[in-house]
Design goal:
Shape: elongated
Largest sheet: 16 strands, antiparallel, barrel
Number of helices: 29
Structural class: alpha+beta
Helix content: 40-55%
Distance between the termini: 131 Å
Amino acid sequence: MNSIMRNVLPMNQGQDRKRARRNRFLSCVAWLLIVAFSFTAFPAAALAAEPWQATHDKGIELARAGDFKQAISIFAELRSRYPNAAPVWIDSAIVLHWSGDDKGATDIYESKLRNRRDLPLYLKEAMANAYYRTGVFTEARILYKELGATGEHRFRMMEAQALIRLNDPAESESIYRGLLIEKPNNPDVYLSRGDARLVHGDYHRAIDDFLTAKALMEQNADADKIRKIDSLLAAAYIRASDSARAIVALEPYIQNGTADIVMQADYVFALRQNGSFEKAIDAARRLWPDLNKPPVYGVRVLGDSYLRSGDYSQAIQVYAIVLRRDPKDHFALLGSALAGVLTGKVADALIKYDQVIAKDPRLAELVLDDCLYFVSLGKTWSAEKVFGVITKRIPNNAAFHRQYADRLALSGLPRAAFENYQILRGMSGGGATGVAGMSRAATATGDYAQAKTLLDALDQQALRSPVVAQALREYEERQKGSWNSRTAFYSDYRNKADFSMVNSFEANLGGNISLLGQTTRLSLRNTETNETADYWSYGPGIRIRGLKYDFKAWSNYSNMANMDGNQFSLALYPNDKSTVGFFSTMAPIETAEAMNQRIMARTYGGSYSWQKFASPAPGGTQLRVKDYYTVGYSESSVTDGNKSYNISANWDRLIRDDRLKRLTWSTYLSRQSFAFESPNYYSPGLRHTIGTGLTDRTYVKRGYWEWKVFLEYGGAQPYSWDFSPYARLEYGHFFTSLFFAVAGCEYGFSTKNERGNPSIGFGRFQCDLNINLLW
């Protein structure tokens, strides 16, 4: 055994010596290779310090200290003095990349370094990041792929990110699947894939990835990475329109003050998206005392919140800050223009809208959205001006004209809609739609002849279009006639006690012409003298309607000799907002005394009415009339030689109008004068009247209740002013949509000063019943 051991030990020692000699040899070879590589790849490292070395090192030191301006200047000088020194070019690109001048860095890389085979990995990584940051994703992807061959996952993840931005989600997903096969529980992969999916617009799967990454991160309690995930998670929630969850994700960081500036901006964005405009404003003002520091989009969201909350002036100021920081922010310019229109600064807003479209014609659709919004607010003049800006820049867009005309029609503005459909008819692809729209607008205004002519001109293919079918249906369902019966009893302190019944009907004869008819029954009595008069009349008439006019004429034949009369009226509609009216009547004066003495009056005059619109009632599309103004003038020549002149004005203001109630405030005034005071009818030398009151209509099932309370003051020379308040209550019931009745009573008081009695007492009383039938 010992002899064996003696023989083995020397053998082992020999093997050790051989192994030691072999190792020394390999070590020498390795050192020689390293030295040789150093001399070929980086000659400056193998030689004595190059003449540029000290300056180069100083430039690097300055760059690391953040003094990029001086560092860049140093490397620019080194490049001019030592154009063949590769390290100078390499570190020039690195310093430019550090300074944020990625374009300058990649320019050096492309002109001097790209084709070299001895480039260090750190330069390739820096250039890949520079290309990525400048949006040159093809070049970035090439470098990341080359770097990924080293086996580092972060480069493969960046390659996948670049592929997403190159719109190659399939290849990107393939890389992520491979990474997760290698490391199934790597939170960084889930985080990167979630970010890529977020960029690609796959928000819900991005949220799933972020939640998975967060769950894996929480096991290691990496607070910084968890905050980053929550930031991205909130961004994904916002883009998925789940602002409530975005707020929940960001709230803890906002409360404890650890939210970075981007998280703060997203928090304000989420509050605005959630409709919490006041909270968004409060949060932004609390977080950002200086609006020049937060991200531009966050400041813009603050402006949007002011806009939505109705503080238009503040919105304009905030948008001005945004535009000063980023003049190319089209959305801030749009918001500022919208706020400008809403504050009455239309001229300035039109300039901004024009600038938006000039810079990017695709944004004309957003300008059109604002235009349609103005229509829905009743700002039709502003809408028309904004649409003019659009059509000036984009004159032949049939889709724009159709949307604008459709909104006008839905809003109850048929004449304006007709004009825009007429333009649409002449455009390529807009013929049938334009004709159908014109027909619908003509039907709505009673211009049935034009509506039918337009539809008759369409060919069989156009008649199969849904929009044409709708126009045909509306034409076929047009109103063809009506009947109205009004019965009333009236009495007042002037001893009048009158009963009246008036029946009228209208029947369309075809096209724009309708037949009119009316019968009138009057029973008049003076309760003081007990004088009475019974009057009845009948008369045929004609009505001719068009898109912009409405003419009526009829005769009245009476049971009393020399008491036949006639009536004429003409209404002109320059647009949907105003009406010019003219009328002339020859009719008896309705008192018993005047009737018995066959006294009649020829009255003629005119009026002008215009209205301001408000947004539709909740759930509706048609604009409501917010303000209705009327001024009128008339003259009367009485057969007894008297003359009368009357000037009047009226203003109705809509206070509330919804499914439950309609509340209106009215004010009126008039000035009437007569040549002399007649004992047969009320004819003061001069009378002024002013009144104001409320009308409240409450809707109930299949009808409504309405009450009115008015206060009226009047003064008739030579008497002092009198006070005549009155109230009215009425009920309307709809048996069907075409058959309804209204019954009402009113009672008024008067101080009766014209009778020399200043005490207030009975003024007037009236009961009436109206029955209406349509077909």
